[in-house]
Design brief:
The structure is a homodimer of 244-residue chains. The two termini of chain A are 25 Å apart. In chain A, the strands form three sheets. The first copy, chain A, has a five-stranded antiparallel β-sheet. Chain A is built from six helices and twelve strands. The longest helix of chain A is centred in the middle third of the chain and has 27 residues. Chain A has 244 residues and is α+β, with helices and mostly antiparallel strands. The first copy, chain A, folds into two domains: 124 residues, Jelly Rolls; 87 residues, Winged helix-like DNA-binding domain superfamily/Winged helix DNA-binding domain (Arc Repressor Mutant, subunit A, Orthogonal Bundle), CATH 1.10.10.10. The N terminus and C terminus of chain A are likely disordered. In chain A, helix 3 packs across helix 6 and helix 4 packs across helix 5. In chain A, strand 11 and strand 12 form a beta hairpin. Chain A is 34% helix and 22% strand. Chains A and B meet through strand 1, strand 6, helix 2 and helix 3 of A and strand 1, strand 5, strand 6, helix 2 and helix 3 of B. Chain A binds a DNA duplex (30 and 30 nucleotides) through helix 5.
Chain lengths: 244, 244
DNA sequence: CGAGCCATTGACGACTCTCAAGAATAGTGG
DNA sequence: CCACTATTCTTGAGAGTCGTCAATGGCTCG
């Protein structure tokens, strides 16, 4: 087992992005809508459906027994969530804004998958991707400072914003500062202070609440510490050698 | 995408444990040996094989550009590592003691999988499990104190030790304190101090370096935060309520 | 316009890291 | 078998980062 954690009985995963052909499976499902603050499902619910996000943004939360909340990820258009081999969801998924999504029962999702080897491969591949992302986040949480965490997060959001058709230097943040804090393992105050500091250094400008302007991307990358492979300006498919 | 991290080009996974039928695939592979400190493979190596651990213990490491090291997991007998959809490994795997393992080329691993739907399902299931474990670790790193982290870690190792046939209250630790620290996102000093503190409270006894005796499992669970409901009882009848 | 949420900013304190030294253990060679 | 060395672990003192508590300000919405 990768980590030494005790969760022998659970096998759930996760949220899958950019799900190539997989999204096609949902084509015949009706579109459902959700307003900000509402959940697609809750932690502990019986896991009977798989969902595809079509519009809007969501957060994936887990609750600790003492009330602490952790955000393990964010979702947006094109992501799939709820894929699972267990019968209960391990996390809640909550809308950050107006969301449109489609659903498929796990049973029919499985059936389609059996019939389509290409999609099975896509799913497997996306699952591997998912693990890599989770491990990246582990590294981030393991040993990065508040500034490094925030810079890494902002760069990731920048890429996401751009790939969804935004300006090349504008970060769109559908989530609140508190969400960011819960995602990065920080407090809202630290997130706020760090943003202020970066703004003071002329690296970015955060006039609006949900929009951050990147002024010096290179500085941001430097402070993110090891952007590793994606250090460069991405977007093109050129894979660079990652040596350390 | 679950996390907002930027790793669009990588899809690797992970280490799979308790790999039901999957282990059978390696039956015809010769057994290879490795002594402590040696690697099965390094981060950045071309990913051409999948490996099954037969004996001994290993650690999974990632290196940051500035030299910081993170341990993302530990492996032992029955675990599979190297499953990947990318052509380079994202982490190193290094022996903690004398290790015996077998290998299979990715190509033949894939071939076998195509022929065996049951194994495909097992793999998918294990991948989901893997993600769940990684997310548990994210939660731990996100918002748990040093004491909570260590207690959770020790409980997991206890379970692992017991399931491998050890005494019900003895934790076997094949790794060093530094490894534990790098796994939990702490320093070696903090790990050491925390163990000393727990020993001072009569919760455990750590006379030997690689062996910890659990004296009050219930207290350990309580301090792990969210070990949740499974009541203690533990080892002796005298279960005392321990508040923090 | 007031209520409520969200974000910012400040002061303070605690937890953990850093630096440093010493003790215990393991490994090596005589 | 016993020094001798190297590594690992423990313990201490001090510092720094980040969390906690608290107050203020800005935005949104009824």
């Amino acid at each position: 087992m990768l980590a030494t954690n005790v969760r022998p009985l659970f096998e759930e995963a996760p949220a899958l992005s950019d799900c190539s052909g997989l999204l096609g499976l949902f084509d015949r499902s009706p579109i459902e809508h959700l307003s900000a603050g509402r959940n697609i499902f809750f932690e502990g619910d019986r896991a009977e459906h798989v969902f595809a996000v079509r519009e809007g943004n969501l957060r994936i939360c887990r609750q600790l027994h003492d009330g602490r909340r952790v955000i393990t990820g964010f979702l947006s258009s094109g992501d799939i969530v709820g894929v699972s081999f267990q019968n209960r969801y391990l996390h809640s998924v909550e809308a950050l804004d107006n969301v449109a999504f489609q659903r498929l029962t796990k049973v029919s999702f499985d059936k389609e998958l059996i019939a389509r080897p290409d999609l099975r491969h896509a799913l497997l591949s996306k699952l591997c991707d998912e693990v890599a992302v989770a491990q990246d986040q582990m590294v981030l949480l393991s040993c990065k400072s508040a500034e490094e965490r925030l810079c890494a997060f902002l760069l990731a959001r920048l890429q996401s914003s751009v790939s969804q058709g935004g300006e090349p230097n504008v970060i769109w943040l559908p989530m609140t500062r508190l969400d960011i804090a819960h995602y990065l393992g920080l407090t809202i105050e630290t997130v706020s202070r760090t943003i202020t500091k970066l703004a003071g250094q002329g690296i970015l400008s955060a006039d609006r609440r949900h929009e951050i302007l990147v002024l010096r991307k290179a500085a941001l990358q430097q402070r993110a510490g090891e952007g590793s492979a994606e250090a460069d300006d991405s977007l093109d498919g050129t894979v660079r050698h990652v040596r350390l």
